[in-house]
Amino acid sequence: MRTRWRVAAVLSAVAMIAASATACGSGSGDELLIYNAQHESLTKEWIDAFTKETGIKVTYRHGGDTEMGNQLIAEGDASPADVFLTENSPAMAAVERAGLFADLDSETLNQVPPQYRPPTGKWTGVAARTTVFVYNKRLQPDQLPKSMMDLQRPEWKGRWAAPPARPDFQAIVSALLQLEGEAATAQWLAGMKQNAVLEDNNVSTLEAVNAGEIDGGIIYHYYWYRDQAETKEISGNTALHYFKNQDPGAFISVSGGGVLASSDKKDQAQQFIRFITSRAGQEVLQKGTSFEYPVGSGVSANPALPPLADLQAPKVDPSNLNAEKVSDMMTQAGLL
Ligand SMILES: [Fe+2]
Hints:
By secondary structure, the protein is of the alpha/beta class. It has helices at residues 5-26, 40-54, 65-75, 89-97, 106-110, 167-195, 202-210, 221-229, 266-276, 279-287, 323-332, and strands at residues 32-36, 58-62, 83-85, 124-136, 160-162, 196-198, 216-220, 238-241, 252-259. It is globular.
């Protein structure tokens, strides 16, 4: 789907009417309601652990970052949601700008180092993922791009892939915009239009590289590690290249969690975010099936992953990632 941010907002307003009708009809008054844009498998792991510890029942509605963020903005104070979880920061920043988040408890904020949450305390990082260049092992190390910026050069024409419509990829572009500015980003996107094969999602990008249809692709790390831990069916012929060196391609994207100001179950909602950022909640990332990075309570990553601190990520302010501007620029470049 090639949905633009504003178009999506209008569509969500329509969807909202149907969604509210469902909420009234089901009469699920006791359960905490998450608007979930994280991977469902991870959110289920968190919910199970939380309910086991607290006895509080939790339900969720699932959609993409942009879709669920737009739905919250369209619903405003009338939203039935208590908690918002995303894969990436831009949708959290948009909901924060709309003034819809409550302040998080200081106990929650103290569990997460400042580099993984906005200074406003309106939401927090709950997990992280890093940008990687996945490549077919027929490439030699000296043939790899030194920087993500190199992928706009003529020698990369037709040789790399990425999923432009996915919020995961758009978060990477929003970091590029913050780090390098509008002119350099527009130029890079024009280069991408020239050079890249446009894929539907991270998995199809990985599959194309694995099948040797293309030399490399920009994805997030965990898609590769999940397949490596299972069958290696879509990653066996590939390896990961980390750009490091504060490169825009070394961007670490923070998954967000926040409590809606309009929630009538704020105590339980605060408790949920406090739990997922606690040692027990972060150990779900370390030991579960997500292969995403813990960011809080001093919990280290799954031992299969390189430590987050070794990845030399650029400094990015997660509350100032501009999804709407990125969507406009990518549309302009003919990528959406
Ligand atoms: Fe993802």
